[in-house]
Write a structure and sequence with these properties.
This protein has about 110 residues and is mainly alpha-helical. Helices cover about 35% and strands about 10% of the residues. Iron/sulfur cluster binds next to loops.
Length: about 110
């Protein structure tokens, strides 16, 4: 019979905790990989038509006069999901992820 010492209880609890955390870590990494695989290509015809860029520094202000400093995907009303993440969903580009510091000509000030 196994001796049920305090040390054994901590060993079992520690192993159990790691077993619970491992799938969470795997899912988190999988989510990141999914975001990268589904990143909106700025060369996509619809993205190009709206002047989408992955970083607001790259907005061609001679072409996209609506752009104003401070506008980016993370503060756009059309961004969906976790707007603090590096990549997020967008109502304009279903199934694709847009960059946190991205921008396009459909930008609308996020409310609330
Ligand atoms: S609509 Fe908003 S969230 Fe979507 S790409 Fe344009 S600026 Fe970013």
């Amino acid at each position: 019979m196994t001796k049920c010492s305090r040390r054994n209880i901590f060993k079992i609890a520690g192993a159990g905790s790691l077993a619970l955390l491992a799938p969470t870590f795997a899912l988190k990494n999988q989510g990141s990989a999914w975001a990268q695989d589904n990143a909106l290509d700025p060369e996509d015809p619809q993205a190009k038509a709206l002047g989408y860029v992955e970083h607001y520094d790259d907005v061609d202000q001679a072409v996209w006069a609506r752009y104003e400093a401070g506008q980016q995907c993370s503060n756009c009303q059309l961004a969906q999901g976790d707007v603090t993440a590096d990549w997020m969903n967008c109502g304009i580009f279903p199934g694709k992820q847009v960059a946190k510091k991205g921008w396009c000509n459909a930008w609308v000030q996020r409310q609330g």
